[in-house]
Design goal:
The chain is an alpha/beta fold and about 450 residues long. Among the domains are: about 120 residues, 3-Layer(aba) Sandwich (Rossmann fold), CATH 3.40.50; about 60 residues, Nucleic acid-binding proteins (OB fold (Dihydrolipoamide Acetyltransferase, E2P), Beta Barrel). It is built from 13 helices and 19 strands. Helix 7 runs parallel beside helix 8. The mean pLDDT is about 95. Bound molecules: 5'-deoxyadenosine.
Length: about 450
C-alpha cells in the first residue's frame, strides 16, 4: 500500500512553495496525501525560525506528535526548513524521536530521506546549503491554487539586518538564471495559471551575474510580455534596492499588479540605523511619495517590528507617525524577538516584554483604523477580481483585486479562475464585500 504523508507548513510564502515541491516529490514516488495526521505514515513539519514564537509552535506540535509516535512507532517524523537548518542539535535533544532533518530547498531528496530513515532506523540528515538553486528545481509541484503560482527567483539574503536570522538559515543570496524563470512562467501559463508571484527574500535585489545579466525590473518587463500571463506580483522588495526603473516598469506594464509590500520595520531613523537597514525614514517616505505620484494607484503594505533594542517612546512615536504619513493599505507587525547569530543580540536597551506588547497593540489599533478608512473609500467602486476560492465567511466566493484586496461576494462556482467585475457594497479592515456585476445580464 502506498504511504500517506502530511506536510504542515509554518512561516513564509517561500515555505509554502517548498511544501508544494516536497508534496510533488513524494507523490512522484507514489505516496499520497493524508487528510488527517492520524492516518499519516509520514508527518513533515516545514518550519520557520524568524521569531521565537514560530519555533515554540513547532516544539509544541512535536510534543503532540510524540503521543502519536508512542502509539505508532513506525510513524516517520520530519523537521525541515529554516529551524532544522538553524538548530538541528536542539531539535534532536528536545525531540529525539524525529527521523528526518533537512534544511530549506530539500524537496528533491525528500523521498530518499524518508526511505533512508525507514531502511536504517537512523535519523536521515541533509543540512548542506544548496548553492546551485537550479539543480534543486523541479516541475513536480503540487500547487494549492489552480490559478496563482509562486515562482522562486532568488533565495537567501546577503544583507545583514541586525534582527534577522535568515542569512543563517537560507544562506547568502543566490539567484536563478532569468531563462529558467521565464521558462517556468511560460510553462505555468500553458498549464492554465494566470497569476504568478515572484519570491525572494529581497526580491528586487535580483541581478544575474552571468548570461543575460538581467536586473529585477528587466526580468519583470520580460515576464510581463508572456502572452496569457494576466497578473504578476512579487514579494518582498527591500527599500534600499527600490529604483525608479522598477516603478517605471510597474507603471508601464498593466500585468504587474498595483501592489507593493515593502517592509519598513521602523519609522525612526535612529532605530533603522541600529537595525542596519540601509535607509532613513526620509528616504522611505521619498520612495512612498514617488509611488503615490505614479499615474496608477498602487496599494502599499509593510512589515513593522516594535521593541527593537534601544527603541524609546520617541522612536515608537516616529513609527506611529510614519503609519499616519504613509497610510498603508495593510501592515504586519511583530514584537522584536532575539534570534541566534544576529547583531542585535549584543545591543543594549532591551525593551520589556509588556512594553513591547503595549506598543504592538497601540500600533495595530492605529493601523486598523487607517485600513478601515481606506477600505471605506472603496464603497461604490468596481474592481476587477480574480475569483480563486470558496469564501470562508457567509459569502460564496472570494478573490483578489489587482491591489491584493480580498473581495467576497455571492456567485456560482463556475466563476472560479475567472476575472470578473465586482461592485463594492461593504467593507471591514481586512476585506471588501461586493456584488458580482454579471456582464451578460447587464447587456440583456
Ligand atoms: N523579531 C521580530 N520580527 C522579525 N522579523 C524578522 N526578524 C524578526 C525578529 N527577530 C519580521 C520582519 C520581517 C518579517 C518577515 O518578520 O518584519 O519583514
Amino acid at each position: 500500500m502506498s504511504k500517506k504523508y502530511l506536510i504542515e507548513t509554518f512561516g513564509c510564502q517561500m515555505n509554502d512553495l517548498d511544501s508544494e515541491k516536497i508534496a510533488g516529490n513524494l507523490q512522484r514516488h507514489g505516496m499520497v496525501s493524508a487528510t488527517d495526521p492520524s492516518e499519516a505514515d509520514i508527518i513533515i513539519l516545514n518550519t520557520c525560525s524568524v521569531r521565537e514564537k514560530a519555533v515554540q509552535k513547532v516544539y509544541a506540535r512535536l510534543g503532540e506528535i510524540k503521543r502519536q509516535k508512542n502509539i505508532r512507532q513506525d510513524l516517520v517524523v520530519g523537521v525541515v526548513g529554516c529551524m532544522a537548518q538553524l538548530e538541528s542539535d536542539s531539535i534532536l535533544k528536545k525531540a529525539p524521536y524525529v527521523n528526518i532533518l533537512a534544511g530549506p530547498q530539500k524537496s528533491q531528496v525528500m523521498t530518499e530521506l524518508v526511505e533512508r530513515t525507514i531502511r536504517t532506523g537512523e535519523v536521515a540528515v541533509d543540512l548542506r546549503m544548496e548553492e546551485d538553486l537550479e539543480s534543486v528545481e523541479t516541475s513536480y509541484v503540487m500547487r494549492q491554487n489552480r490559478w496563482r503560482a509562486s515562482v522562486m527567483i532568488s533565495e537567501g539574503c546577503s544583507r545583514r539586518c541586525a534582527f534577522c536570522v535568515v542569512p543563517s538559515t537560507r544562506g547568502r543570496e543566490r539567484v536563478r538564471p532569468s531563462e529558467a524563470i521565464i521558462r517556468e512562467a511560460e510553462e505555468l501559463v500553458a498549464k492554465g495559471y494566470v497569476e504568478i508571484v515572484l519570491l525572494g527574500q529581497t526580491v528586487n535585489s535580483y541581478r544575474e551575474r552571468t548570461g543575460n545579466r538581467m536586473s529585477f525590473p528587466q526580468l519583470l518587463e520580460r515576464l510581463s510580455r508572456i502572452e496569457g500571463l494576466k497578473r504578476i506580483r512579487f514579494t518582498s522588495p527591500h527599500p534600499a534596492d527600490f529604483t525608479d526603473e522598477l516603478l517605471e516598469v510597474m507603471i508601464s506594464r498593466p500585468q504587474i499588479c498595483n501592489q507593493i509590500h515593502m517592509p519598513v520595520q521602523s519609522g525612526s531613523t535612529r532605530i533603522l540605523r541600529a537595525m542596519r537597514r540601509g535607509y532613513t525614514r526620509e528616504r522611505y517616505l521619498e520612495i512612498i511619495d514617488r509611488i503615490r505620484q505614479a499615474p496608477r494607484e498602487v496599494a502599499i503594505s509593510t512589515d513593522i517590528i516594535v521593541g527593537f533594542p534601544g527603541e524609546t517612546e520617541a522612536d515608537f512615536e516616529d513609527t506611529l507617525s510614519l503609519l499616519d504619513a504613509v497610510q498603508f493599505d495593510s501592515a504586519f507587525s511583530f514584537k522584536y524577538s532575539p534570534r541566534p547569530n544576529t547583531a542585535a543580540l549584543n545591543l543594549p536597551g532591551e525593551v520589556p516584554e509588556e512594553e513591547k506588547g503595549r506598543r504592538l497593540e497601540k500600533l495595530q489599533e492605529r493601523q486598523k483604523l487607517i485600513q478601515y478608512n481606506k477600505n471605506a473609500a472603496y464603497l461604490g467602486r468596481r474592481l476587477e477580481v480574480l475569483v480563486d476560492d470558496r469564501a470562508r465567511n457567509r459569502f460564496d466566493l472570494t478573490g483578489r483585486a489587482s491591489d491584493n484586496r480580498i473581495v467576497n461576494f455571492d456567485g456560482p462556482e463556475s466563476l472560479m479562475g475567472k476575472f470578473i467585475q465586482v461592485e463594492i457594497t461593504g467593507f471591514g479592515p481586512n476585506s471588501l464585500k461586493g456584488v458580482w456585476i454579471n456582464s451578460a445580464a447587464v447587456k440583456q
